[in-house]
Design goal:
disordered N terminus; 27% helix; 6 helices; Aminopeptidase; 9 strands; alpha+beta; nine-stranded mixed beta sheet; globular
Length: 213
Amino acid sequence: MMAAVCGDVRMRSENHSEYHIRQYALQQGALEIEYIEEYFGEYRRRKLASEVVDRLVDRDHQILMAEAPLPDDPSTVAPVAYKVSHQLRFTESDPKLVDLVSRLEGRVELRDRKVLYSWIGGTRRDWRGQGFFRALTEEQEAWALDNGFDEILVKTKNRFYDMRGTLDHLEFNVVKFEQNTVSNRDSKVYLSKQLGLEVVDRHRSKRSVVQAG
């Protein structure tokens, strides 16, 4: 299921690994997300395409997917990682976003600013540790800067150590920690990063963008 994309982004990191990233329009991207989440064992419930559309339709958003050849069939390219982000407003009506805004009070300023929220994403198990998450995050930062965003916000769990390590290298700062009294591994961590031109200057990856025909 790979069609109707907005553009392709090719990224090459310092160690010469190459990343192929597609940026999707909303409808096709939502279908791709519903498909790819079947390969992520951590998720108790997969996102439906309709849920993705409902969340993103009335706000600035970005849907990215990284692709790679399958080890047992290099001629076949499959999605191996993805990241979906959207604008978070001070005035929200969705109950989940209203709750998120309330939890960020005094930690992230949403009034008269554009804040990008990294909503969902991940990397398939067999492709973890190969830089896909970093490549997607760097492309997300470049897009956010080009689209007038002031800050990027991430919410994760304490037990996602690899993800937190990458965010640390990318200079995301912890703005809030919510302790889980049953298991500290499930405590929630909120991180953010202020955006500016110097952010892109520090990226490891070199990118060339090719728009789809």
